[in-house]
Amino acid sequence: MDIKQYLNNRRQEVEQALDELLPATKGPLAGHVEAMRYSLLAGGKRIRPILCLAAAEALPADSRPLLPVAAALECIHTYSLIHDDLPAMDDDDLRRGMPTCHKKFGEAAAILAGDGLLSFAFELLSRPLAGGNISAQEQLRLVHNLATAVGPAGMVGGQVLDIQAEGRGEQNGLNQLRLIHRCKTGALITAAVQSGAIGGGADGRQYEALTRYGEQIGLAFQIIDDLLNVTGDAATLGKAAGSDTARGKATYPALLGLDETRRQADEAVSAAIAALEIFDQHAEPLRELARYIATRKN
Amino acid sequence: MDIKQYLNNRRQEVEQALDELLPATKGPLAGHVEAMRYSLLAGGKRIRPILCLAAAEALPADSRPLLPVAAALECIHTYSLIHDDLPAMDDDDLRRGMPTCHKKFGEAAAILAGDGLLSFAFELLSRPLAGGNISAQEQLRLVHNLATAVGPAGMVGGQVLDIQAEGRGEQNGLNQLRLIHRCKTGALITAAVQSGAIGGGADGRQYEALTRYGEQIGLAFQIIDDLLNVTGDAATLGKAAGSDTARGKATYPALLGLDETRRQADEAVSAAIAALEIFDQHAEPLRELARYIATRKN
Questions:
Q1: Most buried pick, A2, A122, B54, B88, via CB within 10 A?
Q2: Choosing among B21, B86, B123, which should be mutated to test the A contact, i.e. which has the most A CBs within 10 A?
Q3: Do A33 and B127 touch (CB under 8 A)?
């Protein structure tokens, strides 16, 4: 299969859904909606929504009813980027080559754009899924799983740990680095795959396998992120390179060297693909996604 | 009935639930949990959770299975206070007589405490309700209703409008003021009552009546808030009095005068009580709550 073509098609599908689900408005809230749409529709790989859709396909199940769930995943991811970029947090001026939300709209508007996107995500997740086959009970499980993944025990907790670790560089050690990554990035990526599994009606064995896949993919994604932050260039990344080191954050390359880092990324990709053993050719997009994540340039 | 005793009992019940549902932790996230608990357990009237529980009782239904829902309402309210107090927003130093979350823990920690509480609220809302009688479908409806009430069309949108209106004082006019209040405060209060209605298994007629009650209670609550901000003293309020006027916000007293403001508050309270006509003595707590809101001092 042509993974680039697949990713392009899926990305367009997701972006169209986002555009339709959160349309521009007139009236007093026009500016608020504009700030949310600015960050939400600023490009990006749409990895999380695509993982959700591809996980459902692997079962195989029709992924179209899950588009609102996929859109919600991107709303959550975007909210986390907006808040992480704030002056009180990472204080970043650029994101995907464009001014960050607070640079463009001001700090109050950016905090509220993030808050709005997180709330809107749960609005989307709890809507009746048109054309879907999952029961309300399964949908509640999906919502609960995702809420747990983005809360104190997941993404928000990971950002807390990340900020606490800043300036302590390599003193943090590999275990601490793994914990940060597992919470900050891994939890949402794993939950994205699990959402596709639940939404597509996975049985227990399929759910377990997809969870293992999601965990390894999340790990690979983050190791490569660290690698790109060291070896990438700003134009391709759309943000400053080397910023992790400058902030005194521990990274895989700093702790392990480039060769061992690359080896661990490959290992995680292999483990992700191995986890899909029980699936047939419908899981090919997931397998190709794993390989794509290992070779991505931004 | 003795409304003070009722409120005390219910408040203790809610605070115990909050304490148990979000216990202090050791380990790397201890500080994060401490920041969330600091704001969550800093006192407060617990009006929203109590409205939820009292609405279920009015039907009549057992309100105990709804304690996690009630707790979630307070988590959402607390998150909104933490973010509203931030330097980029209202820049408040005191809340309930204590340093605001960012004054105590720093700005990044406060943003993340708010984000954590909002996420945790949806984790609570989507849990299976032990001992409850509502179907998963009804629970999903509850989640969706609440997510809509706190998002761009509700609470977050109201805060956006409030910040936009700042400094424009009485130019904003009464319609604009009503819109801000309906979104910023009214939406969550109404949704709190509706959550109790849905969670308690209300039929269509009961749900409509409780919704009207919630709308009028939300309105009365906000009018009185404006009154207290003008006429109250800092010690009772736990925050600076007169701060709305200082920020050039429009208020009911500034637009209507004290007498007419008081009259409109009484009118809203009467309308709230009238909406409960179809209910028997089990709705007494809701009726007393309406009267209490009109006479509160902080």
A1: A122
A2: B123
A3: no
Question: What was the pLDDT predicted at A246?
Answer: 63
Return d(Cα B91, Cα B86) in angstroms, integer. 5
B30 close contact with A: CB closer than 8 A: no
> Once rounded to an integer, what is the mean pLDDT over residues A195-214?
98
Find the residue in B nearest to A150 (Cα). B119
Say whether pLDDT at A212 is over 80. Answer: yes
pLDDT cut 90: percent of chain B above it:
80
Domain of residue B176 covers 3-295
Residue in the structure block whose two tokens are 């699990």: A194
Mean local confidence (pLDDT), B172-199: 94
Asked if A83 and B109 come within 8 Å (Cβ–Cβ), the reply is no
Do the chains contact at A148 and B123, CB–CB below 8 Å?
A: yes
Q: In one letter, which amino acid is B259?
A: D
Task: Tell me the residue ranges of DSSP E strands in A34-97.
Answer: 94-95
pTM over 0.80: yes
**Out of B108, B127, B152, closest to residue A163 by CB:** B108
Positive/negative CA dihedral, A73, A75, A78, A84: negative
Q: Which of B32, B111, B164 lies nearest to residue A157, judging by beta carbons?
A: B32
Helix, strand, coil shares, percent, chain B, to 5: 75, 0, 25
Round to whole Å and give the CA distance between A122 and A153: 18
Put simply, the chain A residues between 129 and 148 with a CB less than 8 A from any chain B CB are: 135-137, 139-141, 143-144, 147-148
Which candidate from A112, A123, A126 shows the least CB-CB separation from B160?
A: A112
Name the packing angle between helices A284-295 and A204-231 (round to 10°): 20
- What is the tens place of the pLDDT at every residue in A36-45? 999 999 989 9
Q: What's the CATH number where A7 sits? A: 1.10.600.10
For A161-201, write each residue's pLDDT tens digit.
999 988 776 666 889 999 999 999 999 999 999 999 999 99
What's the distance, Cα to Cα, between the start and end of chain A in Å? Answer: 22
CA dist A199 and A133 (Å) reads 8
Is pLDDT above 70 for A271? yes
Q: How many domains does chain A contain in total?
A: 1
Give the tokens for residue B208: 């409509």
Strand partners, B261: none
Closest CA–CA distance from residue B195 to any residue of chain A (Å): 14
